[in-house]
Design a protein that fits this description.
Strand content of chain A: 5-15%
Helix content of chain B: 55-70%
Structural class of chain A: alpha/beta
Strand content of chain B: 5-15%
Number of strands of chain B: 5
CATH class of chain A: Alpha Beta
Low-confidence stretches of chain A: 483-487
Mean pLDDT of chain B: 93
Distance between the termini of chain B: 30 Å
CATH topology of the largest domain in chain B: Rossmann fold
Structural class of chain B: alpha/beta
CATH architecture of the largest domain in chain B: 3-Layer(aba) Sandwich
CATH superfamily of the largest domain in chain B: Cobalamin-binding domain
Number of domains of chain B: 2
Low-confidence stretches of chain B: none
Largest interface: A-B, 22 and 22 residues
Oligomer: heterodimer
Distance between the termini of chain A: 74 Å
Largest sheet of chain A: 4 strands, mixed
Number of helices of chain A: 18
Number of helices of chain B: 10
CATH topology of chain A: TIM Barrel
Strand order of the largest sheet of chain B: 2-1-3-4-5
Strand order of the largest sheet of chain A: 2-3-1-11
Shape of chain A: globular
Bound molecules: cobalamin
Radius of gyration of chain A: 24 Å
Largest sheet of chain B: 5 strands, parallel
C-alpha cells in the first residue's frame, strides 16, 4: 500500500468458532472440579506414585488432581508439535488451527477395489494401502490402514515395518499392548539414526487410547510415560461414551472427556516437563442407542469440543473422511465430505481415519483417493482472501472494464494458473466426457489405484536399514510365539 | 385379571420400576398366581420390549429400565414361585477376555440377557482364563459368554475354552462368544457352542442353547 494505514486485517481465512471463550471457561472449570472432587482411577503404580509426589490426593489408585497442577501442566506443554518426513525435513505443524490429514489404522476388512467385495484384510493390503496413501498429495501423514488376518501376531510391528518401507510421510501409529511398543520405537530410532535424532526430529506420533476419562489402564499409562520420558510425541485420547462412561448430555460429556485428557497431560508433564502431547479434548463418542453401533460419523458429535484444544493452545487430534456405510455409495461420500469439512472448520490438526467405513471395521482405498480430492477442494475453499494492489487490480479494471475484454488482459494470463484444479472431478462437456470413456468418479479413483500399485514400489530405506528393521520385526514375531488364527 | 396383566405389561414397557412393583403386589393381593404374573405380565411384557427394540422403536436405556422394572417384579415373585418356575430362564456368566478392555458390547449383552429373563453375572474385563474357570465353579451357570474386540485377544477365547476343558468343566456349560472381529466360523474353529453378532441375537442364541 502506498499510504500508511492502521487497523487493517485483510489477510484473513474463513472464520468459525464452535464455542465461545466463556463456554470454554465453563467446561474448563467443570473439568477442574471433576479432577479435584471425583478424581480418576489409574491402574499403573508408577503413575500413582508420581502424582502423589506432586501433591495429588491419593487413595489406593484413585487420584484427585488439584487445579494448580493442571494449570501448571497446561503451561508446561508445548503448543506445537512438528513432525518430520524421513529425510529430516519439517513436514507437519500440529498446533493452532492448521489441518493435516491422514488415514486410520487397524481395519479388519477391506472393500476390495478390484472386486467391490468386502473381505478380510491381508498383509498385502497393508502395503497397498500405504503405497496409495503415500501417492496422495493431500494425505499428509499415514496410519497403516489394515489389520492382516493372515498374520495377526505382532501386527502392530508388521504395520510399522510397512509404513517405514513404503512411505516417507510422517506416521501416526498404534501399538496393541505394552509389548512391542519399545521395539517399534527402536525401529523409528534406527531409521532416524539414533534416539537423539528421533527426539530432535520426530517422524512419528504414538496414538494411545486409555479405557475412559476416568479409568486409565496400565498399558496406556505405561506408553504415555515411556514416550514422555523420551520426549517423543503422542496422542492421548481417553474416549468417553455418552450415556456409557459419562453423562449423555453434551456439556457434562465434554467436561468428562476434557478432564480425562487433562489427567493424561499432567502425568506426561510430570514425567518430563515440555513433553509433546496432542489431545482430542472435549469430544465424546456416542453409541447409536437403537442399533448398538458406535457411529464414526454423526452430526452431533460436537466436534467443536476441539475448541478446548485451541483454548489451551495445544495440538488437536480428531477425525474425518470416513463413513458408516458398508458400500461406497452416496452415504459414504456424503459422510466423508461432511466429516472432513467439520473437522477442518473446527481446526483439527491431526485429522485421521480418512478411508474408514463400516464404523471403523472396513477400509477402502477408493475412498482414500476420493477423499484426497475432497481435501484438496477444502484446502482451496479455506484459503483466505488476499487483498492488495495486484489482486484488487484497479488499474486493470480501469483499462479493460468498458471494453469487456479481460480474457486478453496480461493480468489474466499472470494469474490463470492460481485457480484450483481438480484431479478426479470431471468438468468436461458431455461429448468430451464420453470421448474420455464416460467414467464415474469411482472408476477414475480405481484407475488411479491400479496405476499406483502397478508401478514398481519405491524403496524408502537404504538396504542395510531395511534389514535392521526386518530383524526387529522378526524378533518381536518370535517373542509373540508366532501364534496364528490358522492354528 | 387380563386388565391387571395389561397394566403391568404397560408399566414395564415404560420402564416404571416403582409402578411395576406396586402392580405386581396388587395382582398377588387380588389372588393371581405368581407363575401367571411372571409369564403373562412380566415375560410377555419383556418380549414386546425386545421386539420393539429390534424394530428400532425403543432405545437401549429404555430397554434397560424395562428390564429393571421386570426384575423389581421378579423380586416379589421369587419367594412365591416353585423352583421349577424360577429355573426356567437360566444363568449366564459373561466377561471380556484377557488383554481386552472393550466392555460396552459385553455390558449390553449382559443387560439384554437380564431383560430376556436370564440371571446374568458380569465378571468384568481383562479376565484370565482361570477367572472364568473359578466363576463356573462358583456360579454353576448354564451359559458362559465371552467378548473380544481385538484380533489379538480373540485367541484368549480359545485359551479359556481349553482351561475349562482342563478343569473338567467344559461339558457343564454352553459357550457363547461375540465381539466385532469374532465370526461364526471362528466359534466353530475354537469349539464354542454359539456366536451372536449383536446383543438381541445373543438372547435368542442363549435361549436356543438352553433348549
Ligand atoms: C469404543 C472403542 C474403544 C474404547 C473402548 C471403551 C470401552 N469401555 O469399551 C477404547 C477407546 C478404550 C478402545 C481402546 C482400544 N481399541 Co478400540 N474400539 C472401539 C470401537 C470404536 C467401538 C467398540 C464398541 O464399543 N462398539 C459398540 C458395541 C456395542 O459393539 P460391540 O463391542 O461390537 O458389541 C456388540 C457385538 O459385537 C456383540 N457382542 C459383543 N460382545 C459379545 C459377547 C457375547 C457373548 C456375544 C454373544 C455377543 C457379543 O453384541 C454387542 C452388542 O450388539 C471399535 C470399532 C468398532 N466398530 O467395533 C474400536 C476397535 C475395536 N478398537 C481397536 C483398537 C485397535 C483399540 C486399541 C488397541 C487402540 C490403542 N492402541 O490404544 C485399544 C485397545 C485397548 C485394549 N487393550 O482393549 C480396533 C480393533 C482392531 C482389532 N480387531 O484388533 C477397532 C476395530 C477400531 C479400529 N479399526 O482401529 N477402543
Amino acid at each position: 500500500m502506498e499510504h500508511p494505514q492502521t487497523n487493517v486485517n485483510a489477510q484473513i481465512t474463513p472464520h468459525y468458532r464452535g464455542m465461545t471463550d466463556d463456554q470454554c471457561r465453563l467446561i474448563h472449570r467443570a473439568s477442574l472440579e471433576i479432577l479435584e472432587r471425583t478424581g480418576v482411577l489409574l491402574y499403573y503404580q508408577p503413575a500413582v506414585d508420581l502424582l502423589k509426589k506432586a501433591g495429588c490426593y491419593v487413595e489406593e489408585n484413585r487420584v484427585r488432581i488439584p487445579a494448580h497442577l493442571v494449570e501448571w501442566a497446561l503451561r508446561a506443554a508445548p503448543s506445537h508439535i512438528r513432525l518430520y518426513d524421513r529425510s529430516g525435513k519439517p513436514a507437519l505443524q500440529l498446533g493452532d488451527r492448521i489441518s493435516n490429514f491422514g488415514t486410520g489404522s487397524d481395519c479388519l476388512h477391506i472393500l476390495d477395489h478390484r472386486t467391490n467385495e468386502r473381505r478380510d484384510a491381508l498383509c498385502q493390503d497393508i502395503v497397498d494401502g500405504i503405497r496409495v496413501a503415500d501417492a496422495m498429495p493431500h494425505i499428509d501423514f499415514i496410519m497403516s490402514m489394515f489389520l492382516p488376518s493372515d498374520a495377526p501376531d505382532a501386527a502392530d510391528v508388521r504395520q510399522m515395518e510397512g509404513m517405514l518401507n513404503y512411505s516417507a510421510k510422517p506416521i501416526c501409529f498404534v501399538t496393541y499392548e505394552w509389548e512391542g511398543t519399545a521395539e517399534i520405537i527402536d525401529m523409528l530410532e534406527v531409521v532416524a539414526g539414533g534416539a537423539e535424532q528421533l527426539q530432535a526430529r520426530p517422524t512419528a506420533i504414538l496414538y494411545i487410547n486409555p479405557t475412559s476419562g476416568f479409568r486409565h489402564n496400565e498399558e496406556a499409562l505405561r506408553k504415555l510415560m515411556y514416550v514422555a520420558e523420551k520426549h517423543l510425541p503422542c496422542v492421548y485420547w481417553p474416549e468417553v461414551g455418552r450415556g456409557l462412561t459419562c453423562p449423555i448430555t453434551f456439556a457434562g460429556a465434554m467436561a468428562c472427556s476434557n478432564a480425562g485428557h487433562l489427567a493424561g497431560l499432567v502425568i506426561a508433564q510430570l514425567v518430563n516437563e515440555g513433553a509433546p502431547v496432542a489431545l482430542c479434548t472435549a469430544v465424546p463418542f456416542s453409541l447409536d442407542m437403537k442399533t448398538m453401533v458406535v457411529p464414526y460419523v454423526d452430526p452431533d458429535c460436537k466436534a467443536f469440543g476441539l475448541e478446548m484444544s485451541h483454548y489451551y493452545n495445544l495440538p488437536a487430534f480428531n477425525w474425518g473422511g470416513m463413513s458408516d456405510s458398508k458400500l461406497l455409495d452416496e452415504q459414504a461420500i456424503m459422510e466423508a465430505t461432511l466429516s472432513l469439512f467439520v473437522a477442518t472448520i473446527n481446526g483439527g490438526n491431526l485429522i485421521h481415519d480418512v478411508g474408514y467405513m463400516e464404523s471403523g471395521l472396513m477400509g477402502s482405498l477408493e475412498l482414500v483417493v476420493i477423499c484426497d480430492e475432497i481435501i484438496s477442494w477444502l484446502k482451496a475453499s479455506m484459503q483466505g482472501l488476499e487483498i492488495n494492489e495486484e489482486t484488487l487490480a484497479l488499474d486493470v479494471i480501469h483499462e479493460h472494464a468498458l471494453s469487456g475484454d479481460f480474457l486478453g488482459a496480461e493480468h489474466t494470463l499472470r494469474h490463470v494458473r492460481e485457480d484450483w484444479q481438480p484431479r478426479l472431478i470431471d468438468r468436461h462437456n458431455y461429448e468430451q466426457w464420453m470421448a474420455g470413456g464416460g467414467t464415474s468418479m469411482r472408476e477414475r479413483a480405481r484407475a488411479k489405484i491400479d496405476e499406483i500399485l502397478g508401478a514398481e514400489p519405491r524403496h524408502i530405506l537404504p538396504p542395510d536399514i531395511e534389514k535392521r528393521i526386518r530383524t526387529i520385526t522378526e524378533r518381536v514375531i518370535a517373542a509373540s510365539g508366532g501364534i496364528s488364527l490358522k492354528d | 385379571m387380563a386388565d391387571m396383566v395389561q397394566r403391568i405389561a404397560k408399566k414395564l414397557y415404560q420402564g416404571d420400576i416403582e409402578a411395576v412393583g406396586e402392580l405386581v403386589q396388587d395382582a398377588l393381593d387380588a389372588g393371581m398366581a405368581p407363575g401367571e404374573v411372571l409369564k403373562d405380565a412380566l415375560l410377555a411384557g419383556m418380549d414386546e420390549v425386545g421386539r420393539d427394540f429390534k424394530e428400532g422403536v425403543l432405545f437401549v436405556p429404555e430397554v434397560l429400565f424395562a428390564a429393571r422394572a421386570m426384575h423389581a417384579g421378579m423380586d416379589l415373585l421369587r419367594p412365591l414361585l416353585a423352583d421349577s418356575e424360577i429355573a426356567s430362564s437360566g444363568k449366564c456368566v459373561l466377561g471380556t477376555v484377557k488383554g481386552d478392555l472393550h466392555d460396552i458390547g459385553k455390558n449390553l449383552v449382559t443387560m439384554m440377557l437380564e431383560g430376556g429373563g436370564f440371571e446374568a453375572i458380569d465378571l468384568g474385563i481383562d479376565l484370565e482364563p482361570g477367572t472364568f474357570v473359578d466363576a463356573v465353579r462358583e456360579h454353576k451357570p448354564d451359559v458362559v459368554g465371552m467378548s473380544a474386540l481385538l484380533t489379538t485377544t480373540m485367541l484368549q477365547m480359545k485359551a479359556t475354552i481349553e482351561a475349562l476343558e482342563e478343569a473338567g468343566l467344559r461339558d457343564s456349560v454352553k459357550i457363547m462368544i461375540g465381539g466385532a472381529p469374532v465370526t461364526a466360523a471362528f466359534a466353530v474353529q475354537i469349539g464354542a457352542d454359539a456366536y451372536a453378532p449383536d446383543a438381541a441375537t445373543a438372547v435368542e442364541m442363549a435361549r436356543e442353547l438352553m433348549a
